[in-house]
Structure formats: C-alpha cells, structure tokens
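Exercise: predict the fold of this chain.
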Amino acid sequence: MKLSLAIVAFALAIPSATYAQDSTAVSKGEYPNTFSSGSANVSPFTSQSKRFNDWSISAGVGVPLLQSADLTSIKNGNGKNLFGYSAYLSIDKAITHAFGINLQYDKGETRQGWFNTKDSAPDATAVGARTQYDAISILGDINFSNLLRRVDNHSPYRWALHGYAGIGTIAYRAYQKDGNNKQRLMTEVKPFQLGSMFMQAGTGLKFKVNRRIDIEGRLMYVVTGDDEFDGGGDAYSAINKRSEQVSDNFFNATLGVSLKLGKHESHVMWHDPLQEIYYKLDVLANKNQDIEVCKKGDADNDGVCDDWDRQLDTPAGARVDGAGVALDTDLDGVIDLYDKCVTVPGPVENNGCPVATTGPVVETETKLEGIEFDLNSDRILPSNTPILNNAVNYINSSNGSYSVIGATDTRGTDAYNQKLSERRANNVKNYLIKNGVQTGKLQAIGKGEKDLKYPECEPATKCPEWKNRANRRVYFEAK
C-alpha cells in the first residue's frame, strides 16, 4: 500500500515538471539576481542546461497541542494549558517552481489531560496523559507565492507562502497517570501497519536569508485516525466514552530552517514563476546569433512590432498597451493623448470632459433632464444636489404634476434593471418630497433598460462610458 501511494504521488507530479524553469548565464558570466522577480536571463528547462538547485534538507522544532480528543492540551478541567514538544527532519525535492515532494520524519510528545504527568495529581479524580510519537510521511509542497505571482512584479522576492498535505505512518506510546499518581502504558501502536496510517496538512511562511538558507514558520494539523492516541484507553473506557469520537487530532506549530543543496546560484522555488517566457537579447548575441526584433517593422513607432500591433496608426506620443492600442483610461472614446479629463468620462465634442450642469434643470417640452447614476447604484450623487434643488423650485412653482422616471443602461438582466430603475426613481421622489414638494405632484416609475437616451448602446460595449452613464438616469415628465 505504501509503495502504491508513493507511485501515485510521483505520477501526479510528473506532468507539472514540464513547466520547470532555468536561468542561463548572462554575457558577462553571471547568473540572474535570485532576489528579484521578472529576470530576463532565462531559457526553457532541460536536464542538460539546468542552472538551479532543486534539493534541500529541512529541520525544525515546535509545540504540538492536542485539540480534538477526549483529553486535550488546551484549557482542561483545571484551566491549564499543557505544552508538548516536537521536531522534524525532511528531505525536499522541488519538481517545479511551484510544486515539490518532501519525505519527512516527525518526533514529539503531546501532553494532555488535567495535569502534567511529570507533576503530582492535584486530586483523586484528575487524569493526566502524554503520548510519545514517531512518524514518517510524504508531503506535497505547493508554493502559492510562485503559483500566483505576476510576471511583471519586479519587487524584492524573499517571502513565500507554502501549503503542505500528505499521508504516512505513525507509531506512538500513550501513557496515563491517575489521581493516585500511578502511571501506566495505555496504548502502543507500531509503525508500518494499516492502523498506523495518518494524515497531516497545513501552511508555512518562508523567508529567504540567502542563497543557501531559508527559515520557515509552519502550522500543521495532524489527523491520527485513532481514538486512543490521547492516552484515554480503549474507545469505550471511562475517558473515551464518546463513541462518536473516531480520531484524536492535534496542531503542531514549528519553526525551522532549510539548507538548499547544489552547486548553482539559486533554487528553483525562488525563481519567477513565468520567467521562461523571457529571453535576454545579449545572451543570444553572445552566441553569435542574428537577432531580428521586428520582422515587419514598427510603422507607428509605438514600441510594439507590427506583427502584434492591433492599431498600426497610433498617433505620435500616445501611450499604448501591449497590443499597441492607444490608452483610454476613462473609456470615454477619447484617447489619453487628446483627453483633457483623463480620469473622468466625457463626450468627444467636449475633449473628453463631462458637460457642466451647474445651471437650472433644462426643460425640453415636457421633460426635465440631468440626474445620472453610477453603475449598479441608486445613490443620489452630491453633484446632483444642485440639480434636484432647482427641480424642487421648478415643480413647486408650476401647477402641474410630474412622473419621476428611472432608467438604466443595458448591462444586467431585464428583471434586475427594472427593479434598479424603480429604486432610482423612488430615491429621487423621496428627496424632492423631503425638500418641500407635495406628494401628490409626483409619481415614481421605473422603465429599466427600455427607455435609453442613446438607443445605439445595445449592448453597452458598443458605446463609450459617457453615453452609458447618460442612459443611467432619472428624468421628469409632465403628466
């Protein structure tokens, strides 16, 4: 069974080995700076061109605390916490920059019950226990920091978050001391038997001290799969009387150090996760290779080769994205080069700036316009307050009554937009009533996305943001 488990673990790891990376020497004979991400001096991994280390040895010490058991280590009957001790030693093999396998040996002693077994029993009813254990396990090691790290992150790279999980075999001797200060061996389990299988999982935070040394704090949760690990005796003894308790589990907090082995400058677990996509031009030049940067040239001189440029006529001076498209930060249809209000959407005819609406509400035939809303919001914006106050004066000075009509843009479902438009209309109506308009003069109506100011914005992606914003509005219509 142990052999089959090991084979499965290695079989799962083999496909990801194709993503392992390598660094190559730069033209001046040095290796990349392994303390930073985004190194350009790299090439795809092959066993012949390997330039990193992938083996290490780790060791650490810690404190195990029995948590899920009939006898526990935390706040027992007399309120004391009982701290044990633990140590581990492991041989670690990195398969890729983000995954490795560790063969680990754990040794320790948990202490649980009402008192420490090295002390005298406080009373005749007290029970103390300790469990000495030895364990061997195979752990999978996932480097989350490498797995999730952006390739364009060039910040110092000396911290890494790891996750661990695996199975193994555990041997233990559980002792119990009763209120008469008599200590006896309650349970003994030998290793490499079916009943000795256990699991552990947890997380660790590593810090890179230098090219050889890492330090790490870990918190592991150990599932023993055995109800007698706590020293309470068999499953139906006076202590282990809870038949539903099938496993005594404990936390193990450790602090350890890793020694990275090998002759190379860096370890694969500290490499940029995506650096294999970069190639250093001076490395290729050093090999007397002809370098053709842009096969079709760069017609608009925006720094993006025409082979990949989606906008071949970018105006001179315009900033572009990776596809060579001129940037439009506020998505209003006016590129940043010509936009006088880069972060605020506005119409093209006003150079990308919003049209000022500081005067009275405009009356066009029977409609009063001018109140717009943020996306997915029914909140009245502070910029709308002067407009609404003018509406209060206008409606109070007239003899008619008005419909307060809410509308949305075309993003979202019909049902959602209908309810959103009703909330917008009611919020405006309540504001007007609160500020002096008679209730009988107003009726709130929601029209959802069925009453677009700019009908061509269906779908919304066909229009700049200022048009979609104009569709997210409340207006007044005389009855």
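Check your answer against the key: Residues 7 and 185 are 37 Å apart (CA to CA).
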